[in-house]
Amino acid sequence: MKRSDQPPIGIIVTWGKEMIREKGGLLSFIRFFELNMNEDGDTWMQKSKNRPIQDILYVYVIVCNQVRYKLFYGGYQKGEAVAFNGDGISWSSSSIIQWPRIIMAGPFEKAPRKIGMRGFQGFRYIYEPLF
Question: Which residues sit opposite 47 in a β-bridge?
Answer without folding.
Answer: 101
